[in-house]
């Protein structure tokens, strides 16, 4: 992390021994170790909380998109059903068009068949 070699650590240990003395050096090392451990735990908790929030935001966005898609599909189905009538070329009486839910065995599908499955709703 800090790229400290053995010689640098030895110099820091000798200076700490000279400054603090042999009686207070073990207590100072223990205090520094506990403080560094608390800082690491604090950072890992913050990181995990941020990751959870990001995951929750992604799930919330996906649910919102699915609701919008369902509303659009619902509007698309409703838009075709109330007015199944279209005017004729002469402008006389409108001709009623049958609503078709899907292709029959005799008629080919108007949309090309997609060989791939829709994977939008699968959870990773």
Automatic annotation (TrEMBL):
GO CC terms of this entry: TAT protein transport complex
Gene Ontology MF term list: protein transmembrane transporter activity
Xref: Gene3D superfamilies: 1.20.5.3310
InterPro entries: TatA/B/E (IPR003369), TatB (IPR018448)
Main location: membrane
Keywords: Cell membrane, Membrane, Protein transport, Translocation, Transmembrane, Transmembrane helix, Transport
Protein's cellular compartments: Cell membrane; Membrane
Signal sequence, start to end: none
Biological process annotations from GO: protein transport by the Tat complex
Chain residue ranges for the region called Disordered: 72-124
Taxonomy, superkingdom: Bacteria
Bilayer topology: Single-pass membrane protein
Segments of skewed composition (Polar residues): 78-103
Coiled coil stretches, renumbered: none
HAMAP family assigned to the protein according to its UniProt record, in alphabetical order: TatB
Subunit structure and binding partners: The Tat system comprises two distinct complexes: a TatABC complex, containing multiple copies of TatA, TatB and TatC subunits, and a separate TatA complex, containing only TatA subunits. Substrates initially bind to the TatABC complex, which probably triggers association of the separate TatA complex to form the active translocon.
Function field: Part of the twin-arginine translocation (Tat) system that transports large folded proteins containing a characteristic twin-arginine motif in their signal peptide across membranes. Together with TatC, TatB is part of a receptor directly interacting with Tat signal peptides. TatB may form an oligomeric binding site that transiently accommodates folded Tat precursor proteins before their translocation.
Family: Belongs to the TatB family.
Protein name per the record: Sec-independent protein translocase protein TatB
Native organism: Halopseudomonas oceani
Gene it is expressed from: tatB
